[in-house]
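Subgroup meeting minutes
Present: P.N., E.W., G.H.
Scribe: E.W.

1. P.N. recapped why we're keeping a running log of single-chain structure predictions: easier to compare across weeks, and new members can see raw inputs and outputs side by side.
2. G.H. added today's entry (337 aa).
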Amino acid sequence: MFNFHKDHKNLVLTAGAVFIALSIVVAILPAFQMQETEPIPNEKPLTDNERKGLHVYVTENCMACHTQQVRNIAMDNVWGDRPSIPSDYFYSKKRLDLWRQSPSVLGSERTGPDLTSIGERQPSEDWHLLHLYNPRAVVSESVMPSYPWLFEEVDSVSLQKDDKIVAVPKEFLNKPGKKIIASEEALQLVDYLKSLQQTELPSGNFGDFIPALEKIQTEGMSDGNQSGKLDGAKLFSQACAACHQETGKGVIGAFPSLVGSDIVNDENSEQLIRIVIQGYDARTDYGVMPPFGDQLSDAEIAAITTHERSSWGNNAPEVTEEDVKKIREFIATELNQ
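Output recorded in log:
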């Protein structure tokens, strides 16, 4: 029919037709379909600061090592409560302008962890800032590069009222006695990272996609533990260890140690429970602890605090779900007064 060896005109025309057909199927039709994408109900658009942080994220090429996509496979359970859908990117994937495409943030490598829900997994601004300044300060085995150009070293006398001081351990300071100040770009980048949270679907989560937290809750029945209690150690590892470390010793100069802590070992667990629910600002060289009351249930907080009060040499009474429930009610009453 066609002798492409001799009929070069038909060869070029056929190759061109195949190229155009594939372009329509692979690129043009999906692009038109994406125009019909709508945001998930209750999904919040990016604020000005968060969008500027997205631009910093792209400028620093963070997507070379991090993804923002949860696939519908078991190994991705830890990164989100459900698989990603196009609507998840409705606000972040808008075109910059007529001539510039939206920034690509999906990524294809997981040299570092997926960031789809990093705002839920790690809501602490101080942790993110310290991690950007020197990742080894919070994760000793990290291969992530440092971003010192997003920070400034200043003398105490040069501090301004609105400066955000980063709690950096002494061994990670280039010059002793200096204070590390976060730049506007660093704060914007952290605002963007904290905004990365999966919006709950109106119909609920995908039934065949088990959230990582549920897995943690239902695991831990080994070693003869058939009581059905939540595993406080695993919950602590997920929610608290990034700052306080698996050893409970924290990071000197950044995040306080729980080992031998008067608050943790207090016979009355009220202050410890309040800190977990409401967060804590020690107003010292330590970073601010964000509140976890909206992220953790009463049973989860009871399991975590009991683990803290019975580990690393600590020895204090168990915290029950009822204890946490009472304190949460007290807090709600105080806020309503």
